[in-house]
Amino acid sequence: MTFDPATRHQPCRDADEAIRTRQSIRAFLPDKPVPRATPKALSSAWFYDEEGSRLFQRIMALPEYYLTRTEHALLRDRADELLPWLAPDDRPLDLIELGSGDGEKTLTLCRALHERRVDATYRPMDVSAHALDELRRRFATQLPGMALEPVLGDYFLHWPATAPGRRQVAMLLGSNLGNLDERGAVALLQRIRAHLHDGDVLLLGLDLVKDPRVIHAAYDDAEGVTAAFNLNLLRRLNRELGMNFDLGRFAHFASFNPLDGAMRSFLVSTVAQTVSCTVLDREFHFARGEAIYTEQSQKYSVPMIERLAQLSGFENTQLITDPDAGYALVVWRRPVDGR
Ligand code: AVJ
Description:
Blueprint: H1 15-19, H2 22-28, E1 40-41, H3 50-60, H4 66-77, H5 79-86, E2 93-98, H6 104-115, E3 120-126, H7 129-142, E4 147-148, E5 151-152, E6 167-172, H8 182-195, E7 201-207, H9 212-218, H10 225-241, E8 250-257, E9 262-269, E10 273-277, E11 282-286, E12 291-298, H11 302-311, E13 315-321, E14 327-333
Parallel strand pairs: 1-12, 2-3, 2-6, 3-4, 3-5, 6-7
Antiparallel strand pairs: 7-14, 8-9, 9-12, 10-11, 13-14
Helix pairs in contact: 3-10, 4-6
The chain binds N,N,N-trimethyl-histidine.
């Protein structure tokens, strides 16, 4: 069985169900020799078990991981430039966040809307009930006046219910889009566009191409938290699929390619070894130096952003970046003449 690139990088699929699907591991770790073009690979959707989510929270606080900090500062300090695009008139808003997590960053934006007396309902959607509980608690204590309707769901499959006549503002932050290759990204963006009405907008947080050393450090931090996050995938396979990966025999490797702007993460087998899987009753062989491709984290240039907007049927209406131009908040609009 070969491995289907279309389903490879989908960050928010129902990871628990997927990982228990017997066929999935066969597809991702083919045991027969495969051409170089189809390496062993695991979906980055599977990073976020309990331990993985904890490790990702530690990543977000690392000095090298500039993404979260920069995005949060943009949402906090540049609301005046964003709001005219999100709330151009008196129509009430549905703020639909795809993959909200615990809502920490978005609270800042909601506070700005609330202070300006914009009639808005925040509809965060996430696959993690735990994250939505934290979000509820956060809003109850810090912004109790905000209308809040959390939705447990997967943004590849679901969309929150909205009332007619309200402006929809969809949000996909954290450079989460970067986990998808261009094909996957355009498919998701087209799906979002199909749920919006003419004139509705999408707010995207996207990490930008910059000094390759800065990007590389964000995915290979000195403390080794990102390495632990990557290796945790193997621990999960051991637990959930009865495998016997020796975590000491795989090494985290992160590589940024300035040619295509893709940051890629791998787990490299440091020795020739065979790993078995009791759930599938079979073995997987690894040559020394053979890699499992575990994640793509795309970095964007402005022309790439414009191309994505065009391919997915949006108008690129506003792009704001921090002073170093390291990160962008982008507002796209579904054209009013509706193509
Ligand atoms: C949550 C997918 C945006 O790709 O930067 C962080 C995940 N992986 N460090 C990213 C991640 C390694 C992160 N996203």
